[in-house]
Amino acid sequence: AAAAVPGYSPGFKKPPAMLRLKRKRQRRSEPPTAAAAAPSPCGAAPRPPPARRNPFSCLDNAPRAAELRERGRRELRAAGGPLAAPFWQVGGRFLNYRPGSFCDLHLPVLIPNIPSSPRNEFPADWSIKTRLLFMSSQPFTWAEHLKAQEEAQGFAQHCRATETNLPQCVQEPKMSTELRCAFQQSLIYWLHPSLPWLQLFPRIGAERKIAGKASPWSQDEALQQVLMSEWSVSFTSLYNLLKAKLCPYFYVCTYQFTVLFRAAGLAGSDVITAVISPTTRGLREAMRSEGIEFSLPLVEESRIRKRKNSEMNMETEVVHSPEVGKSTEDGEEPPPTDDDEESFSWLEEMGVQDKVKKPDAISIKLRKEKNEVQMDHKPESVALVKGTNTFTLLNFLINCKSLVAATGPQAGLPPTLLSPIAFRGATMQTLKARSINAKARAHLSYKDIFSLEIIGPVMPHSLHSLTMLLKSAQGGAFSAVLYSHEPTAVFNIGLDDASTALNKEAVCKDPSKCGLHPKTLDQLSQFSTLGKSSIRFLEMKDYVYTWKS
């Protein structure tokens, strides 16, 4: 039966006869071109056929190079920037470059939001940075090839919490031993556990980087218990240091969420705070069952905003509605506006309570549960724990079985603890730093661009310490592109509790106690102003900061 079907090709190994016949007819109907009719000269190789156009490209939508340059100029004019500005002043998306490479500044760039007003200090950014890229017109040779003695001195200064105060402008940065030692000091952080063959930060979405690496604990329950026991000791040690104001803050990085513990006196709070992001409904229910009191700041902020908008709309209706205006003059109150779905008294006042079907208690509960599930794994799910509840949270995390992955590449691996100071079971680590030289096109010439790249878990104190060093070493003129670990950007939310007043006595002013520079500590003690965003671009001109988030 299959052979009787015309044009049928068994197994689809050959094209059907119908398609072959159609192609032959098309070739015969095409007129022969002059190039095809003319014989090729003797001994000459035939010319290759013209390159095929990409069938998925659209000629109408394909911008040309001139159009791209003109679009870039229009964007720069709209942003108020000069046409020939160096790319470290333009901001936006930074082009990854290598030594000796050339960056075309005339291509369109992504202009960020409007920069902030110039200030002497930038706000504290509690997000963890994965990469910093500092750029300047002056070289970063002072950060290259540290001597063994300078490296050892930097380690000693960190362990002893030595305060380094540099002049406003270092005349010869490369020859300044004090600057180079302070640079080494600013790169140090503490980590637990320490497994050199594994990248332990970030942990969220790290399955691909950890997959295939040796993990003898994944199938050994006894070894998993030993690792978790040591981790619990280190975690408890960190919290005790935090409670004694000997540690300013630390991070707990799990494969699902990250927790930021902050000491009393930081971020405008006079009590210990813990911020968790992202969370899920299951995690929040487990915390409630353990008696942990917490709030959802972004959810509460959204409710307040909606309530204010509804009140404004009601006021507008009161002004424009004659019936409502009449009842108001008679002393009667307008229909109440309540965000609670269980209150439907306003339907009775309108006389439509029998015409509108009211949802039952089960429907209301299901709707609330749906709203809770929809915000899972999103910034809006950030949870805030305060005061003595942070100790309950500590015990909850130690005993939480879902804290460690049961399957996958991260199975049995305890969460990562990151701290600016030493704690029990911690290992000293250093951020990776390298200087890069490149050239950027400006009109018809090229300019030398110098950059300093920092890679690793850059915590808030390291960012501030590095900017203080660059302020003196680069003559008060540099810029930086900051790459944040996105789940931690929401840590910049403000503590909106009016009763949480900053107690100046709670801030540890002695650097020998908490291990931070006094200026860094002063910055971290301020109220958070970035909201759920983080600083993406930072620039200093004439010793004044501007930033974009």
Automatic annotation (TrEMBL):
The gene is Donson. It comes from Casuarius casuarius (Southern cassowary). This is DONS protein. It is found in: Nucleus. One of its GO terms (cellular component) is nucleus. Belongs to the DONSON family. It comes from the Eukaryota. The keyword Transcription regulation does not apply. PANTHER family: DOWNSTREAM NEIGHBOR OF SON, PROTEIN DOWNSTREAM NEIGHBOR OF SON. GO terms for biological process: nuclear DNA replication. Coiled coil: none annotated. Residues 330-342 have a biased composition (Acidic residues). Keywords: Developmental protein, Nucleus.
